[in-house]
């Protein structure tokens, strides 16, 4: 039995990495973090040309019909480059529309996503846990309320919203949706508060039980955030090893010191099993295994902890240089920190895993 990636999967991931190496170097990431949205749009356009928007869309709707494992490999490459791309939101939107839409609704919206005519933002944080005063209600085809931590809405044409009952609705951003940007620690990711005041929306009507499609969106988002943290953590490990080979103290490279060797080895020992966990969780979802939801919870919570450990340890290996913008470790550090909390903290996700196993 083959437990590794196929040659096609490796080639696809390598092509994404190759594009990001040239289109999203650290200097470009800095400019985007400082507010240069045109650079971010250019990267998104290049990724769209590589076919990322079509990855999860079924072939019958004009997509590539690939699985969540393929999407996880893409997100791992995006996390490794801290690329400000909206692939995660697109993947979540496809999952939601495919789960909650009728055949006609799927055909209409998924074909538009694949062609690039529609770009979705996502507003479903309240489906996981709403803060006081937050939440969106749907009445007579109109949405009212506010959604916090909506993702990738700056350049979106539409937003996919979960109401307080868990049903999914599609609203055009141009139809009176008020957007208030959130200033978070991760300046490479677009998060905002959305306010709806009787905004017209289209409800997806193919869902028998409200909330299941939103759950599938959360599951997809959590798995891809775990993959994103995996990629970011791998980059921080690689940078620590590279720095340890070059930095000298007492006329010796610091990588020759036993304590530094131990730090790098411990990071590698923690990270490699985490990669297998992410791959298996994605495979479980693709194959509709009974354990899929549990494995996604474990992947999201475990990568949050492992990513935090590697982010801290890599910074320690760099010493004082690890805190400077010259090295830029903080971009990966903050990406991992944001992934830790978005769509459920590790504590909350582990609680869900306990419930799935009947322990709570």
Descriptive overview:
- The protein folds into 3 domains: 109 residues, Orthogonal Bundle (Butyryl-Coa Dehydrogenase, subunit A, domain 1); 84 residues, Butyryl-CoA Dehydrogenase, subunit A, domain 2, CATH 2.40.110; 145 residues, Butyryl-CoA Dehydrogenase, subunit A, domain 3, CATH 1.20.140.10.
- 55% of the residues lie in helices and 14% in strands.
- It contains 12 helices and 10 strands.
- The chain has a 4-stranded mixed β-sheet. The protein has a 4-stranded antiparallel β-sheet with strand order 2-3-7-6.
- Helix 4 packs across helix 8.
- The mean pLDDT is 93.
Characteristic terms for this protein:
alpha+beta, four-stranded antiparallel β-sheet, Butyryl-CoA Dehydrogenase, subunit A, domain 3, Butyryl-Coa Dehydrogenase, subunit A, domain 1, 360 residues, 10 strands, Butyryl-CoA Dehydrogenase, subunit A, domain 2
Put the structure in a nutshell.
This protein has 360 residues and is α+β, with helices and mostly antiparallel strands. It is 55% helix and 14% strand.
Total count of helical runs of at least 4 residues:
12
Low-confidence stretches: none
- Strand-residue fraction? 5-15%
User: End-to-end distance, in Å?
Assistant: 36 Å
Topology record:
Layout: H1 7-23, H2 26-33, H3 37-49, H4 68-80, H5 87-100, H6 103-115, E1 120-123, H7 125-128, E2 135-139, E3 142-151, E4 158-162, E5 168-172, E6 178-181, E7 191-200, E8 202-203, H8 212-246, E9 248-249, E10 252-253, H9 258-286, H10 292-318, H11 329-341, H12 346-356
Parallel strand pairs: 1-4
Antiparallel strand pairs: 2-3, 3-7, 4-5, 5-8, 6-7, 9-10
